[in-house]
Amino acid sequence: MIFNKDTARKTAEVLLQINAIKLSPSEPFTWASGWKSPIYCDNRIVLSYPTIRNYIRETMAKHIEKQYGKPDVIAGVATGAIGIGMLVAEYLGIPFIYVRPEAKSHGRKNQIEGHAESGQNVVVIEDLISTGNSSLNAVKALKEANLNVKGMIAIFSYGFDVAVKNFEKENIVLHTLSNYDSLLEQALETNYITQKELKTLADWNANPSEWNK
């Protein structure tokens, strides 16, 4: 669920501007999962552009306060959301923790890094939502540490049906600054893509695992 259309279009605009999102229908990318994809998203690039980084930080922080009030802690999902999560926590003036994909096999064997206390309210920060599995794995770890997960906010979501179902199943509210539909609207309006490429991108999003096999 996007917060509002203006935010979604503005966020899509800046992500395209700095090539955090690349659209290449004619020469698809290959994801780690093996899926062929006409889009590749790496929102960590945001951190290298101060003006855009500040826009993402402030927009996320303001939406969090409006939606949930000020939480006790911000939790970033490692590794992509550590940087932006820290910035949001700094803006709100509250503690920050981050969640690894799994507990370390050495040292204190932590999965959650940083200090949080049982019963505290946490909002989770993500950079990107695809299937949602890794994001919800972080939520599970936080709940097992007796933290109260109020919801999650991400920069961008592909809007896959499987992600929607996964979040509904776990009863976690997800908001994003932008999403795939808003991205395509912005890309078409600014002539980043053609009408023909729009159809290719829409077809992929409807069935990504089978597209272009």
Structure description:
This protein has 213 residues and is α/β, with parallel strands linked by helices. The protein has one domain (5-206): Rossmann fold, CATH 3.40.50. Helices cover 40% and strands 22% of the residues. It has seven helices and ten strands. The strands form three sheets. A six-stranded mixed β-sheet has the order 7-6-5-8-9-10, sandwiched between helices. The chain has a two-stranded antiparallel ribbon with strand order 1-4. The two termini are 30 Å apart.
Summarize the structure.
The chain is α/β, with parallel strands linked by helices. It is 40% helix and 22% strand. The chain has one domain (5-206): Rossmann fold (3-Layer(aba) Sandwich).
| Integer tally of domains | 1
CATH class: Alpha Beta
**CATH topology heading:** Rossmann fold
The chain-level mean pLDDT equals 93
Strand element count? 10
Beta-strand percent range? 15-25%
Molecular shape: globular
Give the name of the CATH architecture.
Answer: 3-Layer(aba) Sandwich
Number of helices: 7
Low-pLDDT stretches: none
How do the strands of the widest beta sheet line up side by side?
7-6-5-8-9-10
Indicate the percent of residues in helices: 40-55%
The assigned structural class equals alpha/beta
Give a quick account of the main beta sheet: strands, pairing sense, barrel closure: 6 strands, mixed
* Helix-strand string: HEEEEHEHEEEHEHEHH
Rg result: 17 Å
User: What distance separates the N and C termini?
Assistant: 30 Å
